[in-house]
Amino acid sequence: MRDNQLYEGYEKLSRFRNSIKNSKLILNIEDHGAGSRVLKTNLRAVKDILKHNCSTEKDAQLLYRLCTYFKVNQVLELGTSLGIATHAMATARPQAKITTVEGSASIYELAKKALVKEGLKNVYTVHSTFKNFFETRKEDRTKYDLIFIDGHHSGEATLQYFESILDRVHNDTVVVFDDIYWSEDMTRAWNEICKHSKVTASVDCFDFGMVFFRKEQLQERFYVKL
Ligand SMILES: C[S@@+](CC[C@H](N)C(=O)[O-])C[C@H]1O[C@@H](n2cnc3c(N)ncnc32)[C@H](O)[C@@H]1O
């Protein structure tokens, strides 16, 4: 996980971030999550969304490496925002299908346009609340190799989404949570998830959290400072 090597794809990641950085656009967003601690109105400058609600360069690079390392083929991201993490994961694994879900229409439209402009053919953008995404896909039996839960930072909601993904995981799936220390409530949810009977290993990276389901492994918690 800690890896200072400069991967070829990192340049693409920086270019994508820079293409958004100087945007003068202001979006009227719908908030389906726990709200922002920093941004208090529904009118959001895209550059502020990038600064406060998107993966940092370091986080995007970590997701890039995880997708490469685990050779993922099916990825689910809950919370597209501007598509920073989506872009990183899709760039890392062009052969994988990256399904990403975003509830706010204006953000969804912008991200979709930006990802299409990048020429990424392996991204499937979905405009939906997370709840609706699962409710309307009860028959869908897709098992994901990596699931990134990064939206609606409320403990209760996080636990619900975790329950919803349990029939979408296999023995080698990794589930990544962002902002596990965002609030006491989120940390409580993270601790509960680590103790869940289906979870074996969990890795606490002090911001990101990862859980695994490998039956070969006993339940154990690891702490890694990145
Ligand atoms: C932190 S941002 C995602 C950042 C992105 N994954 C990245 O790494 O750059 C969370 C996004 O999830 C969306 N969101 C939050 N709660 C949601 C919900 N219940 N249903 C659908 N979208 C939601 C928000 O609109 C926001 O754009």
Architecture overview:
- The mean pLDDT is 94.
- The chain is an alpha/beta fold.
- The longest helix has 13 residues, at 57-69.
- The chain is 37% helix and 22% strand.
- Helix 7 (155-165) links the parallel strand 6 and strand 7.
- Helix 1 runs antiparallel to helix 3.
- It has one domain (10-223): Vaccinia Virus protein VP39 (Rossmann fold, 3-Layer(aba) Sandwich).
- It contains eight helices and ten strands.
- It is globular, with a radius of gyration of 17 Å.
- The strands form two sheets. The chain has an eight-stranded mixed sheet with strand order 5-4-3-6-7-9-8-10, with helices on both faces. Strands 1-2 form a two-stranded antiparallel ribbon.
- The chain binds S-adenosylmethionine.
- S-adenosylmethionine is lined by residues 32-33, 53-55, 77, 79, 81, 84-85, 101-104, 107, 129-130, 150-152.
Quick one: CATH class? Answer: Alpha Beta
Tally of helical segments: 8
Helices and strands: which structural class?
alpha/beta
Write down the Rg.
Answer: 17 Å
- Going by CATH, the architecture would be 3-Layer(aba) Sandwich
Which descriptors would you attach to this protein?
226 residues; alpha/beta; Rossmann fold; eight-stranded mixed β-sheet; two-stranded antiparallel sheet; 8 helices; 37% helix; binds S-adenosylmethionine
Q: Could you provide a short overview of the structure?
A:
With about 230 residues, this protein is α/β, with parallel strands linked by helices. It has a single domain, classed as Vaccinia Virus protein VP39 (Rossmann fold, 3-Layer(aba) Sandwich).
